[in-house]
User: What shape does this take?
Amino acid sequence: MSSIWGNSLKISVFGESHGELVGVTIDGLPCGITLDTDYIENFMARRRPGQNEYSTARNESDKPTLVCGILDGVTTGAPLTAVIYNSDKKSGDYADVKRLARPSHADYAAHIKYLGNNDIRGGGHFSGRLTASIVFAGAVAAQLLKQRGITVGAHIKSVANISDDGFSADIEAQLAKLAQKPFAVINDESAIGMQAAILSAKQQLDSVGGVVECAITGLPAGVGSPMFGGVESRIASIVFGIPAVKGIEFGAGFDITKMTGSQANDEIYAEGGKVKCHSNNNGGITGGITNGMPVIFRVAIKPTPSIARPQRTIDLKTLENGVIEIKGRHDPCIVQRAVPVVEAVAAIAVLDMLLGE
Amino acid sequence: MSSIWGNSLKISVFGESHGELVGVTIDGLPCGITLDTDYIENFMARRRPGQNEYSTARNESDKPTLVCGILDGVTTGAPLTAVIYNSDKKSGDYADVKRLARPSHADYAAHIKYLGNNDIRGGGHFSGRLTASIVFAGAVAAQLLKQRGITVGAHIKSVANISDDGFSADIEAQLAKLAQKPFAVINDESAIGMQAAILSAKQQLDSVGGVVECAITGLPAGVGSPMFGGVESRIASIVFGIPAVKGIEFGAGFDITKMTGSQANDEIYAEGGKVKCHSNNNGGITGGITNGMPVIFRVAIKPTPSIARPQRTIDLKTLENGVIEIKGRHDPCIVQRAVPVVEAVAAIAVLDMLLGE
Amino acid sequence: MSSIWGNSLKISVFGESHGELVGVTIDGLPCGITLDTDYIENFMARRRPGQNEYSTARNESDKPTLVCGILDGVTTGAPLTAVIYNSDKKSGDYADVKRLARPSHADYAAHIKYLGNNDIRGGGHFSGRLTASIVFAGAVAAQLLKQRGITVGAHIKSVANISDDGFSADIEAQLAKLAQKPFAVINDESAIGMQAAILSAKQQLDSVGGVVECAITGLPAGVGSPMFGGVESRIASIVFGIPAVKGIEFGAGFDITKMTGSQANDEIYAEGGKVKCHSNNNGGITGGITNGMPVIFRVAIKPTPSIARPQRTIDLKTLENGVIEIKGRHDPCIVQRAVPVVEAVAAIAVLDMLLGE
Amino acid sequence: MSSIWGNSLKISVFGESHGELVGVTIDGLPCGITLDTDYIENFMARRRPGQNEYSTARNESDKPTLVCGILDGVTTGAPLTAVIYNSDKKSGDYADVKRLARPSHADYAAHIKYLGNNDIRGGGHFSGRLTASIVFAGAVAAQLLKQRGITVGAHIKSVANISDDGFSADIEAQLAKLAQKPFAVINDESAIGMQAAILSAKQQLDSVGGVVECAITGLPAGVGSPMFGGVESRIASIVFGIPAVKGIEFGAGFDITKMTGSQANDEIYAEGGKVKCHSNNNGGITGGITNGMPVIFRVAIKPTPSIARPQRTIDLKTLENGVIEIKGRHDPCIVQRAVPVVEAVAAIAVLDMLLGE
Assistant: This one.
């Protein structure tokens, strides 16, 4: 029940942070698709660790190995499995914390659920490392969406209390630019403050969080379902599969609660046979179904819980109170690396819905 | 795919706002439960329309009729179906808007998806009226949870820009009080401002939205799963099945993105053999699994889209631009009525997870 | 988990034999279909009890009441729910057997599972009466398939040891004739022996079983999936939802195990651009996927377990050994009434697969 | 939809016959289980090819490599993935048949479904080779069932027209002996005839089929559900995922259709507080729920479709009629190798149901 998601397109995620590999099986992928290796590897490279001072020093090439479901570079229609080997793991770093639960990590909750049998090295199956396989699956999905004229793109909406600009009317151009940027902000000025905030947190043995904003353009009106099969339900259910996510909002989101109906309502007009809205406070979705406006949502990412400062916690075996000092290599901020992960799950969710229509 | 939700406990919702009835089938309900009719009817009464000047004048008794799955008041283990008849429908109110899409309603999106075949009277299957059946199912689930020592309770966290207090350390006492209040706020002072805001919007032929905050107490640590079977994923996927919801956040939610790790992390301690946290910024869930702290989440409810003011829109058949003036009886605010609906879906989600463990 | 079936088209069955009603919700039904009431009622009439001396004297009109999902006779795309009221129930008949488990019925197994809370009157939710709602859903599905050129039809292949002819090359004509017959045999001669066997069993306070053979024609090649999503898997999983079914076989079925490969293999040829096989021992399915030949399968139906003869059994409460004499009105044979039920589930399974392709 | 099965315990199967590997991910496996490597490898060895003259000469060691979900030999609760490398593949054998559809294989059906993109080498994902991964998952499931006192065991009930004895009252002893036999028959005499039939077919460039009979003992009464969640539905849906299966029957199966109710009914008695039946024509299942008697079912396996004799078929690209002579190494009979595969899927189905209760 835990690590499989989807109806028409199913992904099954497996592996651990400090095991041999992480991987994913994609079941229900259309046949006859020539996978665009460059596109997929570029997509994955945006999540890859070890690239700069804003993320962990763990260095992984993150090259996916396709072990089945493909013949001469073309999908066969059979399940496609990709594995990504873990090459730079240092499990020794975790030896001394094996019995001390790291605050705000899954350690204690997982210890209770799995009776102490879970792999605690690097967080095991709970690790953000698992998102490498999700991003592979998402890159494949995004390639298929691109062929249907649908673009999925995200940016760092905020880090700590520094905000980026939002999406404008010319969203397609914004998305095209964002896809090229190593630090995905719309307004490059905002990157300066964000990066300073990350380095400052790093220096203080602390961490920061932020918000990722994602847009899906080109999606026709009429996709989704009322109630539990709605676009918001489907996207939210997979977005919360990303570690560290604590919230999601669509369109104006929580801000819409402070508007009046006359301010919030997206008035409708037709122009040249196309139906549009004067605003997009509903984020492209009404009644669970797309209305032809861009789908917009934001995801709250908490500050990396792994910090080197001493923290109060308990010994999992004795329940004695103690203090933990987490060693190892950690991201002072994962928001920038979460950008392609959010895009990936959005692409998987949208493709799953389209294949099921 | 649309109106069925759940794994071990499945609910199947059916009906339309201005049809004969709405209803729900609960599949997988444990046998041998003596349904507490008073509890269920009180639960449903909190959602019922026509009770005061803050909600629609539509007057429905909302008495559920149990048509199967029960014998001498006790659940048999077979699917339990309840129907709620629509007694006070005035479909004439919709006759003249049948071709004009109501802004921020599902009308246009549904028209495209269902090629004009959807029942537009009162929103049909998209109507908030459907939540009557969800609340029935949720009340049944909540009764079962109560027997396991688990309480689900919610309050109006805000209406427009007026906020209620939040949950305190004495959350159990707060929930007990809230369950008795017709207008569910923790601090009765805040009700005054909220009600004034609702009446003011009503007078201006407008509407307001707000936030519902929900708590689940008594849930043991270890419930849930990593990744897509996490508690947040499951709750979010059903919460977005409620019409008008535009966001959900757990624990500190979007605010956690502005904290540092050292501020956000919930340090752990043991006391008398019990494991607790010094704070609850994760809202009782880490790695998708409960950690024994109360599960806390907030839901953003948009202002009722049905407002009487003239709004720009299109004719669904001709695509001509026009102006709509929505008649009929509408809620100037649905936040107060959404409180039991949020509780209901939370109870369903939690019971589904517990039955599947 | 129990009474809901399907992926793209989901049916949720509810009700009890001696409760107020039985019913079904169809979720995922395409919109814009004008339901053919005559077609559906004729389909259901073939299953209806009380029509002749070969089936139970219980007399039910079996008129479905459509309570939602339809507007002016046309499907809206919202869940379609139909209920069928139980008008001729005589629960008194069951009063004295409430504690004695009827052999080969679900009584004992259900008593253990539901701890004695299950509705034992007429078998409750386990009753063949529930197939009335399945047949409604199947008739709707069959109507949609007909519009796509796909025909589902079945006949009584055998009753006791009397066999009907099998399907011939002119299967379409056979199916057309069968749909008109109250006692669905291909060769009318065989009906004489079958009916005699039924009446003889009835006279001896006994019952007989038989085999229903079903064909699906017009299905294009390429429908289905390898492994667990195969046509055989999907049809089998829903067929065993019919009470009294103890076996299913496709094509030559169990007889294929006595052939050699050279006898069993369906050699292939093309004629006028159409691909066919010289034989159809695989029943139109290879590797889980249709090959364009008619899909053929047979279903084993056990003799009605309700017989009036004294039978050894136990008292469910005391576990004392005893003897039961079942009273009430029972079918001496349900094979003839199972014909439209088998067609119904086949139609549901095929439509579900087609909608998901 | 195709290669994933299960509710509480999910298996996701991947790989191709002549690709690098086949594998399986088991999601939902309980934690804390020390995998019994010997037990699993013995289980898998019974399916392994290349062991004697009755099966294909393809020689595979079939050693599973566990890549995640396990730590120090103990299951962690995270998805467990095992891969089995294909070491003795000779794809050259298939080069000349790439365009000619092999009769009774999936070639033509798959060609239509996958538009020619499917991997045809050795049948690709449709190959019986995939059952190696299913058997791994089944062996793990069977180990867990053993710890709960549940035994799953099968034998060759027939090959061509030679039959083995059936299960007797002392079924536990029979199963214990069968697990040790390389050629799994109850009555060793029957093996002589079966093996002669296989070798005779082999000599004639032909093949034979047969029936596998499976028993599940130790399962308590009360497992399963009415309707679509019944034990028969669940087992049938996974059994038809095994290539070459054309039928399944429970208890007396198709033979029950020739009995009267008084012959077929399993009369009930209690003895020393235990409830049993005087016969087991229902195969341990009534109303979809176990009744405490052994679950018994039989599976029809068709003769291996790959035979060396010339067969009429078509060219997949040109649709021209032609003749195929299949080369390569093939099993003259797969029934004996199907025995552990049937056990495997039965174990998976039962464990899935037990974990969901």
